[in-house]
Amino acid sequence: MQDSHTSETNQKSIEATIVSGILSARIRPGTRLGENQLAALFDVSRTRVREAMMRLETRGIVHVSPRRGWFVVEPSAEDAIAVYEARRIVEAGLLRSMRVLTEEGRKALEAHLNEERNAMAAGDRQRLTYLMGDFHIRIAELSGNAIIVDILRDLTARTILISILYQSEFHAAQSHEGHCRIFEAMQAGDFAKAATLAVEHLDEVEMGLDLTARPDPLSDLRNSLSLPPKAASAVSRQSDLKTATSKEQ
């Protein structure tokens, strides 16, 4: 029988793995998270899985649908606006509160920016998605405040879900340049400027979202059938036309 420490570790492992999957865009909005499957994968009881899911629900990462189970959230346009506003407040406040960038911190951010450049050169979209979000989490880690790190990690995970749903183009170079400007201001010890640049960077990313878009409930099936959106729409229109013609006859 598992002791309480082991159970707590397993719950945190489930939560951390799911959040990590979202941060790297491997887990998409609306993904069903089956209790039985997770229990088998983590070798825990369904009760432990359910407890982990409930914790993720309070963090705004998953939601439960009656008689259907747990699903990764699909943020609405209103959610997107609220999440970006929260990130602006948290990140600007964090940077304004900083007084110095240590040599260790400088090296960590510099190495991270090099990773971004390498991923762009390799055209590794999934790796870039993770790195673009992780840059902000790394800055939070420099503060040494675990609560802020947890808050920003959850907000960043929700941002990734928002991007998957509403971002029509992936502007990696633009995001990377924004990160470089923030880093340069931090290196110069101008954390007020770094805070302003962070807000501008988040504004740019939010402006790149199409919040009029609606999640496609058939996206997984569409991808499985290798149907591009236009082709799928054409199929739908043809089906509607045949139905209308049949009714007229």
TrEMBL record:
GO terms for molecular function: DNA binding. Residues 235-249 have a biased composition (Polar residues). Pfam families: FCD, GntR. It comes from the Bacteria. The keyword DNA-binding applies. Keywords: DNA-binding, Transcription, Transcription regulation. Residues 220-249 are annotated as: Disordered. SUPFAM superfamilies: GntR ligand-binding domain-like, Winged helix' DNA-binding domain. Residues 8-75 form the HTH gntR-type domain. Gene3D superfamilies: GntR ligand-binding domain-like, Winged helix-like DNA-binding domain superfamily/Winged helix DNA-binding domain. This is DNA-binding GntR family transcriptional regulator.
